[in-house]
UniProtKB/TrEMBL annotation:
Designated name of the protein: Dihydroxyacetone kinase subunit DhaL
Entry keyword set: Kinase, Transferase
Record flagged with keyword Phosphoprotein: no
One Pfam family from the record: Dak2
Gene (name only): dhaL_1
Species: Tessaracoccus lubricantis
Organism phylogeny: Bacteria, Bacillati, Actinomycetota, Actinomycetes, Propionibacteriales
Keyword Membrane: no
Length: 209
C-alpha cells in the first residue's frame, strides 16, 4: 500500500532494533576508532527498550513520542538524546493519526531531523549522523515529488543515506567526541551515520514485506 500504518511504523522500529542488535559490535568498532567504543551498546540498549513499548501505542504520534522518550532515557551518551529528540519531534509533527501518506511521513521525519540539528547544533559535513539523515530525507521528498511510489522513494532514500554515511570517511569531525581527535578523525566512518542508515535499511524491509 502507498501509505504507512501504525503497525508498519511499529514494525519499522522493531526491524531497526534487530538490525542494530545484529550490528552492535560493528558500531562499537567504528566508535572505538574515533570515540569511546560504546555506540553499538548504547543503541542496542535503547532500541531493545523501545521494542518493549511498541504495543502500548494507540496512534502514530504516541508511538513516535514514546520511542523518543525511551531513547532519551535509556541510551545515554550523545546519540540517545539526539535520536530521542528526532523521534519526539517527528511524533509532534504527525498529529494523532493511524496512517501516514508518504508526503506526511517525509514531512514528519524532516521535522524530527530539524529538531535533532537544533539540539546538536550540527550542520552537514560535521561528520555526524546528519550526514546520512539529511541526504536521505532530501532524496525521499524528491522522489515523492516526482511521483515515485513509497517503495521506490524509500529505496532512493536508503541509497542516499548509505552514500552520505560513506562520505563521512574523509571528513574531519567538528562535533562530538570524534572532534577531539581533530585531523586524526579523518579516514574513519562515523558510527552515528552508520546507525542512522539502518533506519532506512529497516524501512526498506517494511515496505517490501
Ligand atoms: P558518545 O559520543 O557520547 O559516546 P555515541 O557513541 O552513542 O555517544 O554516539 C556518537 C555519535 O553521535 C557520533 O558518531 C555522531 O554521529 C553523533 N553525534 C555526536 N555529536 C553530535 C552532534 N552534536 N550532532 C549530531 N550528531 C552528533
Ligand atoms: Mg561513543
Ligand atoms: Mg559514550
Amino acid at each position: 500500500a502507498n501509505e504507512l500504518t501504525l503497525d508498519d511504523l511499529a514494525e519499522w522500529l522493531r526491524r531497526f532494533a534487530t538490525i542494530i542488535d545484529e550490528n552492535k559490535r560493528y558500531l562499537t568498532d567504528l566508535d572505538s576508532a574515533i570515540g569511546d567504543a560504546d555506540h553499538g551498546a548504547n543503541m542496542a540498549r535503547g532500541t531493545a527498550a523501545v521494542v518493549t513499548t511498541l504495543d502500548q501505542a494507540n496512534s502514530i504520534d504516541a508511538l513516535l513520542k514514546k520511542t523518543g522518550m525511551t531513547l532519551v532515557s535509556t541510551v545515554g551518551g550523545t546519540a540517545g538524546p539526539l535520536y530521542g529528540t528526532m523521534f519526539m519531534k517527528m511524533g509532534m509533527a504527525t498529529g494523532q493519526v493511524m496512517t501516514l501518506t508518504p508526503e506526511e511521513f517525509g514531512k514528519a521525519l524532516r521535522a524530527g531531523i530539524e529538531g535533532l540539528i537544533a539540539r546538536g547544533k550540527t550542520e552537514l559535513e560535521d561528520k555526524t549522523m546528519i550526514d546520512a539523515l539529511l541526504p536521505a530525507i532530501d532524496a525521499f521528498d524528491a522522489a515523492i515529488d516526482e511521483g515515485a511510489s513509497l517503495h521506490d522513494a524509500v529505496e532512493s532514500a536508503q541509497e542516499a543515506s548509505a552514500a552520505g554515511r560513506d562520505a563521512t570517511i574523509p571528513m574531519v569531525a567538528r562535533k562530538g567526541r570524534a572532534s577531539y581527535l581533530g585531523e586524526r578523525s579523518a579516514g574513519h566512518l562515523d558510527p552515528g551515520a552508520a546507525s542512522a542508515t539502518y533506519l532506512w535499511d529497516a524501512l526498506t524491509d517494511v515496505v517490501k514485506a
